[in-house]
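Cont'd.
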Amino acid sequence: MVNTEYAKAVLGSDAPRGASEPEPVADREPLLRLTDITKTFPGVVANRDVNLELYTGEILGLLGENGAGKSTLMNIVTGLLRPDGGSIEVNGEAIQMRNTQDARRLGIGMVHQHFMLVPTMTVAENVALGMSARRPPLSDVQRIADELRDVSARYGLHVDPDATVESLSVGERQRAEILRLLKHRAKVLIFDEPTSVLTPQEWIELSHVFRDLAAEGRGIIFITHKLDELLGIADRCTVMRDGEVVGTIPAAGADRQTLATMMVGREVVLRVKRPRVPAREIALEVRGVSLERGGRTLLDNVSFSVHQAEVLGIVGVDGNGQSELVQLLTGLVSASEGAILILGDERHNLTPREFIDLGGAVIPEDRHERGVALDLDLRDNLMMADFATSEYSARGVLKTSAIMSRCDRLIEQYDIRAPNSNVRVDQLSGGNQQKTVLAREMDRGPALLIAAQPTRGLDVGAVEFVYQQINEHKRNGGATLLISTELDEAFTLSDRIGVMFDGRLLRILDADEATVDEVGLLMAGEEISA
Amino acid sequence: MNTLASSRFASSRLLGPVVSILAVILGLAISFALIALNGQPPGEAARALFDGAFGSKKQTAATIARALPLVLVALGWIVAFSARRINVGLEGQMIVGGITGTCIALYLPGVPTGLHLVLALIVGIAGGAVYAGIAAGLWAWRGVNEIVSTLLMNFIALQLLSWVVRGPMKAPGVRSNRSGTIPDSAQWSNLIAQSPLNIDVFMVVGLALLVAWMLRYTTFGMRLRVTGANEHAARASGIRTVSVGLTALMVSGGLAGLGGAGLVLGGETEVMAEGFASSFGLEGIVVALLALNSPRATIPAALLLASLHQGGGLMEARLGVPAELTLVTQGIVLLFVTGSAAIVRRARTVRVDLDEVDSDRSQASLGPTAQVTT
């Protein structure tokens, strides 16, 4: 339901889809043509005979799970990697790229998921850095700034060229990246997951920019795993799986289910139904919690409670205090003010150990940083929170057989795809790493689960699994605090939705009554009068 | 994909040792090539090197005896490094362990044989642990980098030793700067008569096995390994990483202290003299690196270095090849072993999720190296 509204919001804008009417494709020379691109890394074929065409004035969606080879392909197109085989043509001319400068000269540019800007420099300086000029690159900054102002006005990309990058919001940084590409006269613009940092409203603005750019005769490649966004804006979708192109279809006739099936290679349940369970006692209560660090207020008087058999979703654009909230609740940092009550037990200086012992479990937002130890094997990762309990050790010695049988059971139960528990975790896919975290945390039978961005970077199949686990936890009477930047996810799982902005919890809405628009405005910090 | 992956997993277990042995052979080969280039017969040099290290029962015993403190120091390094704490002060901790152990041996007379030795060793361990504990405490509570503090404390220990053998512990009536003679009750008994090899060889081998077992099969070892592999994840899992690091450094110092005490209480000279621990501290770290931080592998690695040291002397005497050449050999072998370890590591890592790796690392490294993360 949410999604149709959302899609409508994007589709309903007045700009026509595909500015130049789709002509018979064979008649036109593509802007960019990849033929039989193959790239192998030791032990893995990242791209196998990939064919892809991008036409002038077109928005091409590139869809695929993690590991499907999208990033490798785009790294080839932007000159970062050299293909083992195949050819690249730009405007019908076969070209060889040795580095990213070559790609830039050919008019190919990319906005990376993690922005490539120097935070301490101004927007104009950042743009100047990439210019190939005869004079020292920074001597022309003033002229570049003026030119940027023109470009920025023309496309409605509002950024102050004289502002330092670190003072900009994420949305502004993204616009700065786009300005840079335009200044470099890029004809082919590649966007890697551009929406993950945007509010719905910002995404609608960006989609207008996409259309304007395409209408001018540029080509846009839009990498995403969010099917709705893709269908809302793309002219055609190319789907990759296991390093190969599964197919390219016009977006007009496509639907979510078809694309998801192409992506995963099997039928996927896209809509996990939210179980209706009457909420019970309060499991987690947060009372007026504030956090200050280095003179900055990161959390400002945050209060809420989560009940047993309830999912409270907290949404917001990344960096509005969600990470700090999770660290606080799991005992990694201490609050400057306020109290946390877990199952009625009030704590001021909670330690991670106490959090676990009180019945807490956490899926950290950054899997590699906090969730798993990549250098250790699967067994150690499955055991690292519980090895000291009497079940798995006695007098400081680990009970190997109990540990082995638990690991085997967890691998089975959580469908972790690994030959055995001796595998080092960095050899597992992201989805299986996340399942490892889930298995470790959920097997304890926690009363309170804190799930921070639990599906970030996961493919559709793994997302489905995580959702089922969270719903199962709820059916069993567990409380869940879900922290997510994805509205879709929050609406799918949550009973109530709170919005965080600038360290404050703006409001908590009933998920059945809240609309995406309402939540989106709150995410941008606009208070709605109740 | 899965079967491919699992066959790789299986073969990778043997890969490390095989590559290490190849690296050693290659390193020796290059050294002998250097000797040949210098105009000396490499065959005879090899012969001399071998004879010097293992030519007779006595020489073999001396080589093994020299390897023992190296193993202890290497184990100390490994314990600290498991929690990613870098203890470069092992030499200083050896010295302090030697001094404290010697104090018990010399100034606590009348204790029965055996018990006296045990007591002296325990106090030696304590000395090393406490000395490492100073650096560990500074790290834990004041955030002082332990690499810097342990390194600098080596110099303090050296000066301390210099002072005690000239001052308070100097044997009366002798001209050289050394302590009095260690009484028999506090000495290791010889395993082979008239050789420096004592029965502590069993203790050292036992300790290597014990440390290997401890790291793998105890909760303490688990805490060390998880903390070392990912401190953030360890903390989130309820492990008190600061106290783990502190303990790791102290255990590390204790092992070095034991090595230091053993050098005095098992030495042929039966006294503590200036420089008794010299070069063992750093060479022990080399042993740990050669062993790729595997406790059991410290035994062959220490034997290799000890035999190069012992054999180098004879090589110089017989052929005039400078004994320092064995240091070159040591360096080359070390380069090959650590270099090939990186290759092994990369070969073991089968990246299944390339996309994710790319996007995860792209923010860290902007240069063309970003592509090599697979």
